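Figure 2 data, in text form.
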Amino acid sequence: MAKGRVKLKDVAAAAGVHASTVSRALDPKTRHLITDSLAERITRIANELQYRPNSIASSLRTQQSMTIGVLVPDITNMIFPPILRGIEDTLAQQGYVSIIANSDSDPVKESALINIMRARGVDGLILASAQRQDAAIVQVMEDGAPVVTVNRMIDDERISYVINDETGGLAQAVQHVVDLGHRTVAHLAGPQRLSTGLFRYYGFCRAAKKHRLRNWRDLIAFANAFNEEGGREACLELIDSGIPFTALITANDRLAIGAMQALASRGLRVPEDVSVTGYNDMPFADMITPPLTTVRIQTYEAGRRAAEIILERLGAERGTLPAVHEVLDVELVPRKTTGPAPASPREEAFGRRGD
């Protein structure tokens, strides 16, 4: 065999089959068209010859790059790696790979990254960075490219999404502290420009009305971001309002961690003085001190379903499939940051600003 790049015909000659048979064997989407034993033999020979498909030529021939662009708001947020794994595992089954980028929750950066990915020829987009009003995503859809949002949704029913049951999850958290005897319950809400922040806020309001919680309308603070600093600042705002509470329902785990730091800075113990719940059950939430009571969402499954939905659209005639709106079940995970309501709130700790 001549030196240089190994070609498809070289593999075919070594295997004693037609080049089209090699092509079928090495393509996950067509491998089922030949017998397993033949596919395994061709794959083994291709590996021995160090054959590498010419993806550029294949892309020109099929008008597909076999790549999916994936945007996340913050790769350091531990809920996103399991989502990404669900996406990648599912795409790989059909021969696709993902190109992952971090938007830093910046709409301008997100729009630029979407344009870059589309210019690079991605076949579709899966977006975990979506804001409720997101013109860039709408433009992608209107241009005819498959797009799915995951963990968040936008205010446009034409866009497919896979989200978790945000309102139901908050209702479970409120029910949990009510069952522990708490009647003065505060809520540390997430940014309302994000569907996760909005729907979890709605969930708290509905549950608070249902259980007729005391002063609940005055016990809501909004964080500027879903991170520890946002949780710390918003919790201090609640404490400084001077309205005592014995339980705090936060809109995600990172907010809960920041809130617990704020409570400790004012001499309030968790859960003896204030019970705290999070949301997401991010990795290691059970390892902080004390282990965090939280609402567990389906991260891997969300990524898996988002990938399945986009693959369905890539395999169908353009514009023939309706949008898919999928809501995954969640569950409360009780740990050590929640406990029985104290006989009375530590009133002296509220309304007293720190030095």
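Caption note: The chain has a mean pLDDT of 90.
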